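Handout, page 2. Input:
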Amino acid sequence: MTADRAVVSDFVDLPVGKVQVLRGGSGQPVVYLHSATGEGLGLPLIDAMVESYDVIAPMFPGFGESEGIEEVDDMEDAVFVLLDLFEALSIEAPVVVGQSLGGWMAAELTSRYPRRVGALVLVNPVGLHLDGAPIKDIFSRSPGDMAEDLFADQSHPMAQLMHALDDYRNDPAQIGNLTFDMVKPVIKHMGATARLGWDPYLHNPKLRKRLRRIDVPTLVVRGVQDTLVPEAHARTFAEEIPGAQYAELADAAHLATVERGPELATLIREFLDA
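Output:
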């Protein structure tokens, strides 16, 4: 990656506090909104997208080094954090790409303020409640169990790390080696996610009827092997957002932006070029 495309970390002062923002590349602005795992530096999707776009990836309050999660109670607050960020960075109607929890944020933002978004990409989004298609629990399960839903390939380094955490937890001889610094990010991210999606669980009961208000070009992408969020969720987003396109990504589970970043970047480029 050339120096002008390198992703760097900086901070932006917002009403909620200092928010960490990763940025790299040049050209059309693309805002990436992360999932509950708080993926950031080194994310394969971002590294692939900076070759063609000005990629802006904020770490939401409570994730990374960002402050202000105590000022955020729900998705309405989250939308205003994003609007404040756009204004602070002078971003006009960017492409917004959201993975999972970030997809929910992106849909909430665009349904309320469609003129503030130029195009929308939702990757394995949550945010809806569908009878007969529940989203699996993310708050009480072990990391190794979660890895089965997040990754199609269990040999992926992040999946291996999650299984290793299980090994530490389950082996009395190893438990002493499990330091707070090893589990702190998980605890921190789950706490921030709970403020947004604990009750009701990972959805806004009003969002589905508002999807019709999203009148920007939209692409909904589903990892074919996603076992965390049922297929019906991505299908419903695609069917109820006017004119939305639907695509599936092979050999990808829930964390498609981590597992199949370059392939997903190609799908997004083709969508935007069209």
